[in-house]
């Protein structure tokens, strides 16, 4: 038995209307996914100018009350250690060291190295090989990972937030 010769016809679909319920469901799903992403990873405005990180290293006596010292000084506790020390962070230098030294249980207090976070540290300036970071020459690690070569190609990392947990 021979198969019948079937001729294919160009079948054109008639006006098919999109299902409004499916379109609404897709739209709601897209909105929910977008909201979920922005809740998980909110957009944060960059600081308007340079931010200074003011850390005060405090040597404590054995009977010192760490929480009391932190609350009385207005500083935020960054870390404590087994050798009776405390690191406090302040918004500015002001007279915070003198305040801490006046508290009972404090043996000494010294500012750690001043840290200043600049806006757009790694964006190359108009001069080749020149960057906005005043400490760029001391940062051997950037040269080690060949960051200047990436910056020369136009990779800046704009929009990326990097945090260093110390």
Report what the structure shows:
The protein has helices spanning 20-40, 66-73, 96-101, 140-144, 147-152; strands at 51-60, 76-81, 85-90, 106-111, 115-117. Strands 1, 2, 3, 4 and 5 form a five-stranded antiparallel β-sheet that branches. The chain is built from five helices and five strands. The chain is elongated. The longest helix is centred in the N-terminal third of the chain and has 21 residues, at 20-40. The protein is of the alpha+beta class and 166 residues long. The N and C termini lie far apart (83 Å).
Note the topology.
Blueprint: H1 20-40, E1 51-60, H2 66-73, E2 76-81, E3 85-90, H3 96-101, E4 106-111, E5 115-117, H4 140-144, H5 147-152
Antiparallel strand pairs: 1-3, 1-4, 1-5, 2-3
């Amino acid at each position: 038995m021979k198969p019948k010769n079937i001729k294919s016809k160009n079948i054109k679909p008639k006006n098919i209307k999109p299902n409004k319920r499916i379109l609404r469901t897709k739209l709601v799903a897209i909105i929910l996914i977008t909201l979920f992403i922005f809740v998980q990873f909110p957009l944060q405005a960059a600081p308007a100018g340079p931010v200074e990180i003011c850390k005060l290293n405090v040597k404590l006596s054995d009977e010192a009350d760490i929480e009391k010292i932190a609350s009385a000084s207005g500083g935020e506790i960054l870390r404590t250690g087994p050798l009776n020390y405390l690191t406090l962070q302040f918004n500015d230098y002001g007279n915070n060291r003198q305040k801490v030294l006046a508290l009972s249980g404090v043996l000494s207090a010294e500012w750690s190295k001043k840290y200043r976070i600049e806006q757009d540290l790694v964006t190359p300036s108009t001069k080749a090989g020149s960057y906005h970071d005043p400490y760029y020459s001391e940062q051997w690690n950037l040269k080690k990972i060949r960051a200047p070569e990436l910056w020369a190609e136009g990779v800046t990392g704009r929009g990326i937030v990097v945090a260093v947990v110390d």
